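Blinded run. Sample ID left blank on purpose so nobody reads anything into the name before looking at the predicted structure. Input follows.
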Amino acid sequence: MWKTILRRLFIMIPQLFVLSILIFIMAKFMPGDPFTGMITPETDPTRIEELREKAGLNDPWYVQYGRWVGNALQGDFGKSYTFQRDVSDIIGERAINTFYLSFLSVFLLYLIAIPLGILAGRYQSSRLDKTIILYSFVTYAIPTFVLALVFLYFLGYQLHWFPTSGSVDIKYEEGTWGFFWSKFYHILLPAITYAILGTTGIIQYLRSEIIDTKAMDYVRTARSKGLPMRKIYTKHIFRNSLLPIAAFLGFTITGLLSGSIFIETIFGYPGMGQLFISSIASRDYSVITALVLLFGFLTLLGSLLSDIIMSIVDPRIRIE
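Blinded prediction complete.
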């Protein structure tokens, strides 16, 4: 398995190379440049042109790309035109916030979805099953930004149960108990919102798997032998039905690490998703290209992670 993992990692290199070229060219097609926002009626055009020349924006795209890749291989993704700081430092700070939000979101997502999916599949066509299906349809039909805005308005601004923006209260010092509680308190509402909206696929998939597994021959055999239904469900049906859910875990984790753009933007949470949107608005090319390349790498990594998880939870599967 280790040879396969190493081979998959080597295959990622040409994939990331092609992705980096596409990202760089698409970023260059964007209208304006980082200095466009500085132009006012009083701005001297000569000064703006000097800044563009100094930043290398007048060079051919392949020269700029070669310079960018060479620096990126050394861990230098350039300097943000907006923040006037190293891109790697800015992304590092936001990545920590996104990691906390992603971890709690995934935990709540599976905490809600797996019990509901199991109950819906076991008690098929019952009132409980229909209620869970109705819940799934409602959460599937609600756009992310609508539920996020509703929660933010009622639970944040009206009831004052949760903070409405930021990642931590500034009155707490880092390392104190109040600091950690404040960080947890700030990510709780965005994580709940994401978890509720993300449960639909897992619930429906798990419900279908349980219903299909109940009709399998080995389950009928277990019933004919007189095994208690509780043991049949726990030993045979639930265990096999959860295998496909495990396959999605890698994509779910890396997908969330890529930043939930709508959630972070609406809740004013300073993560990578919000940074991505603000960078597009300010034409901050150096941040945009670095973030998209990172998102692409996480997607490829999610595919590999899902395969590894599947081979671990199901001994019949070997990735070759």
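Unblinding after everyone has recorded impressions. The radius of gyration is 24 Å.
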